[in-house]
Structures are given as C-alpha cells and as structure tokens.
Amino acid sequence: MTTGTHLTDILSSTYNDATEGGLRIQSYSHSLTTEFMGDWSPATPTGLNTSHDYQPDGLVVWPYEGIYIGIGNVFNPSQDPAVPSPVPVGQVNMVLSWSPDGRMLASGSMDKDVRLWNPETGEALGGPMRGHKKHVTAIAWEPAHVRYPPNRLASASGDGTVRVWNATHRNCEMALTAHSNAVTSVKWGGDGLLYTASRDTTVFVWDASDGKVVRQLKGHGHWVNTLALSSEYALRTGPFDHKAQKPESDEDAREKARERYAALTRGEPERLISGSDDFTMFMWTPATSKQPLNRMTGHVQLINHVLFSPDGRFAASASFDKAVKLWDGKTGAFVATMRGHVGPVYQIAWSADSRMLVSGSKDSTLKVWSARTKKLELDLPGHEDEVYAVDWSPVGTKAASGGKDKTLRLWRH
Questions:
Q1: How far apart are CA 191 and CA 261, in angstroms?
Q2: SS3 for 299?
Q3: How far apart are the C-alpha atoms of 188 and 354, rounded to whole Å?
Q4: CA–CA separation, 128 and 171 (whole Å)
Q5: Cβ atoms of residues 277 and 299 within 8 Å
Q6: Average pLDDT over residues 193-216
Q7: Which position among 150, 196, 244, 382 has the lowest Cβ density within 10 Å, counted as fewest Cβ atoms?
Q8: Which pLDDT score is estimated for 94?
C-alpha cells in the first residue's frame, strides 16, 4: 500500500454499560472549528460529551483538536431519561449539529427539546427551546454565506413538523407543518430553501424566509429516510478552507463562505437526492422543478444513507442490501456497484479530496473504496460488532467510526 492511502487505527475508546439501540441510522451534520486540526492527545474531553454510558452510534467533530466523539442511541425510546451529569440532563439519544462558524453546537433528542451549547466549555447557552411534541430527528443550520454569524437553525421531529429557531432570542420563528408523518431529514440549502423528507413518502421544499411551501416532490412509495445535497460540503465547512483557517472578521468570513459556495455550485441550482424504504432514489433540482431529473434504481433493499462527494462529481448510497453504489453527481446515472460487505451498510463518508469513500456495516467492518477504480482499497477490521456511524474529517486527515461494540475508533489517513 502506498503512502498517503493507508489508514491506521490510532485509538479505541471503550464506552461501558451501553444499551442496544435501533438499526435505523440517520446522518449527522458536522463543521470545522478554528482549532480543528491541532495535535491530538488522548486526554479525556471536558464538558459536554464525557459520558461513557451510551454506545457511539452518532459521530460529531469535537470542538478541539479534530477529535470525533460518538454519543447516544438516537432511536432508542426506552432509554431512561434520568441521565447523570455531565451529559445534558434530559437529553439522551441526541442528534447534533455544529453552527457553520463552529461557535455553537445544537442538540435535539427524545425529550423533544432543542438546546444550544458552548462547544469550548460544554455549558448550555440558555434554556431549552421547546415546541416539538415528539423526539427531534435532525437539525440543520442556516448557511454561513446567508447570515454570519449563523443565527437560525431548523429542527425536524417525529411530530411531523419542522421548527425554525432564532439562536439569539431563543424563540421559534416559524413552524413548517405540511407533512403528515414523522420528518426524517432536514437540509438548509444555500439558495434560500429548506428541504425536508418524511415518512409520509414526500419531500417538501420551503422558502426559508417565510416558511411557505415552494413545491412538493412526489414519487416515493414508502418512507423517505435520507436526503443528500450537492452543496453540502461547502455548507458544512462554511468559511473554513482546506487547512481549517478562516478570515478574522465576520464580514470577511461571510464573503469567504459565499465564494466557496459559488465555486462549488458554479451558478447551477442545487441538486437533491432522496433515498427511501422503497429501494429507490430520486435526483431533483428542487429550486426549479417538481419533476425528478432521474429515478435511481438498483438497490434491492431499503436505502439508509446517501451522500454527495465534496466536489459534487459523484453521489454514493448505502443500503441494507450490503452494497455501496456510486452515481453520477450531475445526472444521477448509475456508475458502479461496490461489493464486499456481508451485512447491511449503515453509513458512508467521503474523503475531502473526493477520491475515497468509507462505509460502515453491520458486518463489523469499515471498507475504504476508490472512486477512481470503483474497487475496494482497504479493509478496516477492528470493531467487534455492528458499525453504526462513520465520518471523515473535512480536512481529510482523520476518520472515525462508532458502533455497537461500545467503542469509538479514530483512523489516520
């Protein structure tokens, strides 16, 4: 194996006394921070996520030194909510999302609340933001090039609604209520639109300024599990460059985020892919049409996760049929099937240069695939049970995985 393509297991942290959780894994939002790529040392983090009571089926970029921390069974409603400090009291089974400037961390959970945290100290920023009647399933922040510092975020819930919150005033600015079943995913696009997917089989497009429905996207025959946005990498990293540096002033940071978004989209509308329990995906240009660009077929079991490559050239999908499929990021045309897993594939993550893809599976392994050869590049054993979640840092030098064996593993590229 040549230098530069080898991944080495550099840490395994045990999470004791974890309980088992569900198999339906959702994707998580991540963002760089100003201190993202400092030298890593195996010190115990202080503040927010220091509990060792929950298996890491969700991963989040830790706010210092590029560490990923896994927490919580996101879909385990039987979990006792009486969680001792330092985990936020009442907030187990969390979904997490960094603000694009890295200054705030938002969480949502089975307790129905949305909370904001100071990622440097782990302290709560005010009280909980309440309004949802069921668990929070996903969170998305308004892009950095739209407003800086980012001040609004959207939360999706099992109650079928999406709420848009003002992080400064801590109030709900609007509730989006057109869905008739649980909302499974929310994405905040770069062109003033919000995208939501639901178990009601539809995807809705909303005007982020007033909450009005722009259009409804129909075609799926079962639950819509996942959404992927072609501009997601630029939105995730905001004003941060490939070395995790950003301009000092807020005005310059917003302009940098705008430049990075414009460079990725090249004046074209954002593309959206929806993946469903009906074994199919659709590619859409939701800003301009309610008709799909392509119906993407080939999987023979439900689709759990879809993700565009950072450069937007490809999209990858993970399915319970044990396969990872590669698709053309512009047209949705089928490119290749990458086989090797012997169990359902739960989640995928792209390298920052879009050359490699890592997948985590029920078979307890991670596999690294080459986008150029469409073949297996590396097999990464080490976990002793199902791998629930995986992510690759936006800088590209570290990856992480967490699973049912109660361990979080960090990998170095």
A1: 10
A2: coil
A3: 22
A4: 10
A5: no
A6: 98
A7: 382
A8: 65
